[in-house]
Every structure is written in C-alpha cells, then in structure tokens.
Design goal:
By secondary structure, the protein is mostly beta strands. It is built from one helix and 32 strands.
C-alpha cells in the first residue's frame, strides 16, 4: 500500500501524538513531599537524619525524592512545618536542640539555624500566623517554651511556662505533645504524672496521672492558663489534635487504649464530649485529622494498626469507620509511632513505623473515611523513624477549612 506524503505526515504525527499521550500517562506526578525523621541515622548522619519522599498523585505510593540531610542535632524525635510549608523544624532529643530548615519548591531541605534548650525537647508546633514556635521539653518536669519566628528564623524565647499539677508540685511530669488551635487562639499540652503512673515501679502520688494543659494566646503572644486548666486526660495521654474549625480537641490515651474528646468553649475552656471516651486500638500514640475536618485517624503502636473515625460535625463525636475489607483494623508495618494526612488532595494517610523501618500508606475514601492500603506499601526507610510530616507540592492546591 502506498501513501501520499501528506498521508505519511499525518500518520507520523498521529503516532507521535499517541506516544506522547501514553508517555504522559505513565509519568509520576508528585502532589506532596513526605519528610521523615529517622533516629538511628546512617554513616553520613550517624546521629539522625531527615529523609524526603515524593507522593504519586494516582496511587499514593511514595518514592525517594531528594538525598537525606542530617537532622541538625542528635536523635530527632519530632517535626513541625510552618503554615506556608516553607520551613521545617526538628526537635533533637539527644543534644537538646531545635533545628530549622527551609523547604524549597522541589522538596530540598537547607539547614539554617537552631537553638539549644535546657532540657530535651519532646514535641513542637508552629502558630498559624507563623510568628511563634512552641516547644515542650523535659523528661521528669515539663516546660513549654515559646520562641519568636521571623521569616522562619528561630529568635529568642518570648515566654516560658513550667507545668505542674495543682496540689502535687513535686510530682514528676512527663510531657508528650503540644498543639496550637487552627485559629491561633490557644495552645494545649499533654503530659502524664510518672509519680502516679509508673508500670513496674513505685507509685508515690495519688494524683490523676493524665493531664491536658490549656493556654490562651493573645495578639501580643502572651500565654495565660485557661479556666480549669489542667484538665484530666486519662492515664497516659500520648498525642493530640484539633479539628480545622477549632471546636474540638482529641487526645490519645496510650495506657487505656482510648481516644478522649473535648469541646472547646468560651475562653478556650475544655469540656469532655458527652459520649466519650472512644475505643481505639491498643496503645494509641498519634492522631491526625484530614484537612476537611471530616475524618480522624489514630495509629496504634501495639497492634500495628490505624483506627479510622468519621467525625460528626455538629457534635464532634468520632464514630469508627469500617474498612473496605470489612474490618476496623488497617494494618501497618511494625509499631507505627507517627501519622499524617496529605494536605494537597486529602486522600492519603501515612504512618512512620519505628520497628518496621518503613512508611505505611493508605488511600482515604473522601466519602466514607475508610482506608485501603496504597500500592506496594510499606515503603522501606532509614532506621527507626520517629516523626512524619507531609508538605504539598507547589503545583497543587491545598485542602483546607477556614476556622
């Protein structure tokens, strides 16, 4: 069969277009970067490092994005990002430092500055304005320190609060988490009394073991204890999160294997949700809420699972969401100790698995809140990951709810 030159040109163009379409369809489009703190480190970073992974928009699978960087200190245990996702902060427990990195549009981290604390940092959070960094530190006493931020740079400490239990000022208080409400109006800190809760050891106090401290944060940055603070928080509160509208606060209780819910009232006073607490898996240690405020996910260290909940928007009540496989257990790799939801699409959930040396991924059903494992999960990482955050790629919008 013979073709005219015009027909040949048309055929070649059509084939080229088809190849281009097929090639484009096979391209991996990144919607987020996952940053992971690994505490054991490598030869290049023996004291711990921050690893970077890219999230595929179609499958939710993660892959190496950029070379890992040293954590800026020893034994990183917590991560936090600024509201604009341009700055990353790392709490290094071993040398009692907090390090600051900038995040480029391509997910590259660059070390900038750091501060040294008087005690080992445990957790940290950035205010929604991006003007303050809150760090909770200590191992037998808890201190909340507020640092000024200027274009991401960590400045001087502007406030410091020593946390104690009313009536038990000498008890040993172990901090576990810190969070700023999405509207920026208050700061909450979880801690437990190791004098009252000491499995296998001696109990020297009759105080309630679990506590949640609340502070209002005014426009000038002043911290003031909320009325009724501290609030009872089970036995061993391990993590906390708030819904995007700043109406509800949730705390995981590691020792009681439950989720405790609070309503936020005038003056940022907290009261228990009426029908709580809510059952979780065994030893829950981290909690994350999707960016639309509809679903909540809790990682359970002992079970190596994720519990999924649908949040009743009027009341804040979390109801267990049944997984697509018919089970309420979503299996991770061994001992998840941190959890995050992707902010770009709000469609993927990831856990950092401390003993599994991996990240587990799940696809979130945006209607039901149920989870299904992503392709090829779990994904191998460096040794002993302790913290995880997800940063949206600059080419994609971010799922948010305005408080």
């Amino acid at each position: 069969m013979k073709f005219s030159k015009l027909s040949q040109l048309f055929l070649v163009s059509s084939i080229g277009l088809l190849v281009a379409i097929l090639f484009s369809a096979c391209q991996l489009v990144s919607i987020d970067y996952v940053f992971l703190a690994t505490s054991a480190g490598t030869t290049a970073c023996p004291d711990g490092q921050i690893e970077a992974y890219a999230v595929d928009s179609q499958s939710g699978a993660v892959r190496k994005a950029n070379p890992a960087v040293c954590s800026g200190g020893t034994t990183p245990v917590a991560l936090a990002v600024s509201p604009g996702y341009q700055n990353l902060y790392v709490a290094n427990q071993g040398d009692m430092t907090v390090a600051h990195f900038t995040v480029s549009a391509t997910g590259v981290l660059a070390a900038k500055d750091k501060v040294t604390l008087a005690a080992a940092p445990v957790a940290l959070a950035v205010s929604p304005s991006g003007n303050s960094l809150f760090v909770i530190s200590g191992s037998t006493s808890a201190t909340l320190t507020q640092f000024a931020l200027s274009s991401g740079t960590i400045g001087s400490a502007t406030a410091e609060q020593a946390l104690t239990i009313p009536g038990y000022p000498t008890d040993k208080l172990v901090p576990t988490g810190v969070m700023v409400l999405p509207n920026g109006g208050s700061v909450y800190v979880t801690a437990y009394d190791s004098s009252a809760y000491n499995p296998g050891g001696t109990i020297t106090s009759s105080a309630n073991p679990g506590w949640l401290f609340g502070f209002t944060l005014d426009s000038g940055g002043t911290l003031t204890a909320t009325a009724g603070s501290p609030y009872n928080a089970g036995v061993k509160p391990s993590a906390l999160a708030a819904d995007p509208t700043s109406r509800f606060v949730y705390v995981t209780d590691f020792a009681s294997s439950q989720l405790i819910g609070y309503g936020v009232y005038t003056g940022y006073v907290l009261n228990f949700l009426q029908n709580g607490p809510f059952r979780s898996g065994n030893e829950p240690n981290a909690v994350a809420i999707d960016p639309r405020g509809k679903f909540m996910y809790v990682s359970n260290a002992l079970d190596s699972t994720v519990s999924a909940y649908v949040i009743d928007l009027p009341t804040g009540t979390p109801s267990a969401a049944v997984n697509t496989t018919g089970s309420q257990s979503n299996i991770t790799d061994t001992q998840p100790d941190a959890i995050a939801v992707d902010p770009a699409l709000g469609r993927y959930v990831y856990t950092a698995n401390y003993l599994g040396n991996s990240v587990s991924g799940f696809r979130l059903d945006p209607t039901a809140g149920t989870l299904k494992q992503t392709q090829a999960t779990p994904y191998p990482t460096g040794s002993k990951p302790t913290a995880i955050v997800v940063v949206p790629h600059g080419n994609h919008s971010i799922q948010t709810v305005t408080p």
